[in-house]
Amino acid sequence: MAGLTLAVSSPTATPFLVPPASLRPFLARRGGDIVLEYTEESPPTPRGEPLFESGGVWTLHRHDRGLLYSFRTPVLDPPLYKAVEIDRGLRRGRLYFPPPRHGRRPPWALAYPLDQLLFQHRFASFEEAAEVHAFGVVHEGRVLLFCGHSGAGKSTLARLWRRKRPRDLVLSDDRLILRRAGDRLRAHGTPWHGAGGHASPLARPLGAVFFLRQDGENRALPLGTADAAAELFARTFPPLWDASAVGRVLALCAQTAAAVPAFELRFRRDGGAITAALGSARVDRPGARG
């Protein structure tokens, strides 16, 4: 994904490492930027105060010379149903996925949010990249990025786009990777799709960024560089416990806002939203560079 590969090995065959069909376009024959060893041993017990509590199923602790991601839910037995122990560079680790005492365990050991967290945090901490909450579509060779939190209308707009402009490629309708390569910015599709189910492993240069706001009209309002950088950062997923990683993501957002046009897209649920976006994306802001 976006040039980064996760490899998991097991000493014996196990059905819990067979990826779901939705991931097949993203499978690689080789590579190992992040390498995990699978075991069905009980996970280590977290020690001390957590670095981060998600408010959901996962918590992060320091552990020995690395990090420990723990996953808990009261609906499984044991509640601590999986964990990943990994070095601070997010390169080598162990995936713990013990058999349940009662009932069934999840069918895939890397199931959400584990796979996403490992990529998300590695990109932000050690690569010139960040995951963005956005719908992305390739139009005339460049990606138009439509950013929004849950409920902003990303999947709605993706469905409209597919219906009105079927020749354009939808990379994802919920999560994309924004990555800098030299002096170029590229948007990469991910398997973490929204309600529309759109997910492609392809990537293209970034052309413009839009921030979605559902409204009674369709129009795109240009944003200044500072406002665009702030809006983009608010829709990324940096590891908030790591100041250097947060700084890297902030810098990427600032570079993006300075490099491509950015707009607030006020839209209603009709094809006029696409017309408004395409019309504005053809007009570069003063000082913007492609």
Description:
The protein is of the alpha+beta class and 290 residues long. The protein contains five helices and 15 strands. Helix 1 (114-126) packs across helix 4 (243-259) and helix 3 (225-233) packs across helix 4 (243-259). It starts with 5 loop residues before the first strand and ends in a 9-residue tail after the last helix. 39% of the residues are buried.
Please compute the radius of gyration using only Cα atoms.
20 Å
Low-confidence stretches: 283-290
Structural class: alpha+beta
Instruction: Tell me what portion of residues adopts beta-strand conformation.
Output: 25-35%
Biggest sheet details: 7 strands, mixed
Work out the helicity level.
10-25%
Q: Label the overall shape.
A: globular
How far do the termini sit from each other?
A: 24 Å
Could you spell the SSE succession in H and E letters?
A: EEEEEEEHEEHEEEEEHHEH
Compute the average pLDDT: 92
What is the number of strand segments? 15
Number of helical elements:
5
Q: In what order do the strands lie side by side in the largest sheet?
A: 1-2-7-6-5-4-3
